[in-house]
């Protein structure tokens, strides 16, 4: 167990101020972004395909139509798993060895069916396809919650003076907080106290809009770093289920 924890710690990325600041300048960042953008629609498509295909094949198995349909779903899944491997290696720059399909060495249709059903690489691939929707939902949430609002802030100078549009920081009420620091000295209590007030602020000039845009640019850089970290996790998940590391445990 300690060896596993040590290997996990050694594989974790160690971001620094330099790596975070240079995130928008790296080509790999945009490959990660494309992978995350595609994760939700692909995951939704895989979920519909597997849930409908497997449920129909099981439900129609008593009239024998479900059995060939089941193998059609498995064979199609081989293609989808191969596509996901290529997607991970191309967009996430993840290098891993793809295990061979057992069905490739089949001596006939019956032997091919047996090899297809008994191939652990296929079932691990199906597990990856089934969890792709959860990955896609998380990616969509991060993209819409971090990157999209940040880009809207960066574009503030383009629309801040549009009629009917208000841009800024708007609070329901003014926030007031008193901060105090007291230090005992002999028989006296020496201290300082001041009041901090936070109120709404609206962009009304080009200077304010540029300041808002610069703040949004900082959020974009930090957001890209967060998305890069999530893409790193996606790559490790793909390597685990689509590579040989997990498959070797079945042998």
TrEMBL record:
Keywords: Membrane, Transmembrane, Transmembrane helix. Pfam families: Sensor. InterPro entries: Put_sensor_dom (IPR025828). Residues 35-242 form the Putative sensor domain. The chain crosses the membrane at residues 33-52, 58-83, 133-159, 210-233. This is Putative sensor. It comes from Halobellus clavatus.
